[in-house]
Amino acid sequence: MDSQSIANAAFNLAKGRLEDHKLDRLPDSIRPTDEADAYQLQSALSKRLTANGYGKPVGRKIGCTTTVMQEFLKIPNPCAGLVYAPTLLQGRGIQRRGDFVFDDFQHVGVECEVVVRLGEDLSDAGTPYAGSTVAPAVEAVMAGIEVVDDRWVEFTQMDVATLIADDFFGAGGVLGGPVTNWRDLDLTSLKGSMSINGIEVGSGVSSDIMGHPFEALAWLANTAVQHGNPLRAGEIVFLGSIVETKWLVSGDHVVINIEGLGRASALFDNP
Q1: pLDDT top residue among 91 and 219
Q2: Where are the alpha helices (DSSP H) in 20-139?
Q3: In the chain, what are the domain boundaries?
Q4: What whole-number distance in Å separates Cα of residue 267 and Cα of residue 250?
Q5: Residue 74 to residues 6, 64, 228, 240: CA-CA distances in angstroms?
Q6: For the packed helices 3-19 and 35-51, what is the interaxial angle rounded to 10 degrees?
Q7: Which residues of 218-255 are buried (b: 16+ CB within 10 A; e: fewer)?
Q8: Residue 170 half-sphere exposure, CB side, CA atoms within 13 Å?
Q9: Residue 251 has pLDDT above 80, yes or no
Q10: Which of 3.90.850.10, 3.90.550.10, 3.40.190.10, 3.40.50.620 is the CATH number of 57-269?
């Protein structure tokens, strides 16, 4: 994509998010054709959103790192997006009547995730990262609810590159308490579950995330370096959902529990 096409596409995507309306397919002339285009457009969108008061990115999210999510979305490989400061809650928190205002979303959903906070940069463009070589950079591990928003007229008809450019449904999240002694845990065998209004709606295990959650982190670190936006100390990363996305109605109260990492909760309500 040339610079004008990127600018026009970023304008269209930002307008949908800032003006709160559903988006359809981008015109052929400004549609990203591959992942290189997608991440370049994602960066341009980020700058436009931040310049228009949306906030700054404070981390990343990875979608489609588990078989359950790849089958759900019919996408065979991981995809990454950005997480913005105003959309991220620490612990329970309260905004108006609930943690999140239901009507602020087009079609809101939630996912049960293993999340990390980085204590070091992952910017080495030499030897590709692996799960074992990203581990020293992990400062804390925690349970998290990723909040996703289907901002599309029909997401099943969307091309993957455009979904990536628009942060792959990313709309925020809630972080549980940080676990800094995560080395005492077997991160391949942590059982997790999600309940909505007190009823369990799904469960999984941390090894569902590419065999080990840090393999997803390594994938992201390599992808981020490749596209010129390496991971930095202080960023949080949602590593992927071990429960299929659950779509919500107003008033839903979501709780996730991940063995060894604790819980996170969120209420989606209207003022």
Answers
A1: 219
A2: 35-51, 67-73, 131-134
A3: 57-269
A4: 9
A5: 26, 9, 27, 15
A6: 50
A7: bbbbbbbbebebbbeeebbbbbbbbbbbbebeeebbbb
A8: 31
A9: yes
A10: 3.90.850.10
pLDDT level of residue 259 (50, 70, 90 thresholds)? very high
Question: How would residue 98 be classed by pLDDT, with cut points 50, 70 and 90?
Answer: low
Work out the average pLDDT over 32-37: 94
Which tokens belong to 168? 């792959």
- Residue 92: pLDDT above 50? no
- Per residue in 73-88, pLDDT (tens digit) is 778 889 999 999 999 9
Residue 58 φ/ψ, nearest 5 degrees: -125, 5
**CA 204, CA 266: separation in Å to the nearest integer?**
19
Q: What are phi and psi of 38, to 5 degrees?
A: -60, -50
Q: Which amino acid is at 190?
A: L
Structure tokens at 77: 């490989």
pTM over 0.85? The answer is yes
For the stretch 116-153, pLDDT in tens is 999 999 997 688 999 999 999 999 999 999 999 999 99
Query: What is the rounded distance in angstroms from the CA atom of residue 15 to the CA atom of residue 212?
Result: 37
Higher local confidence (pLDDT), 91 or 142: 142
* CA-derived radius of gyration, the chain: 17
In the block, residue with structure tokens 């074992």: 132
User: 96 in helix, strand or coil?
Assistant: coil
Q: Which of 259, 221, 216 is nearest to 241 (CA)?
A: 216
Q: How many CB atoms lie within 10 A of CB 155?
A: 15
Q: How many angstroms separate the CA atoms of 41 and 56, rounded?
A: 16
* Rounded Cα distance, 258 and 19, in Å: 36
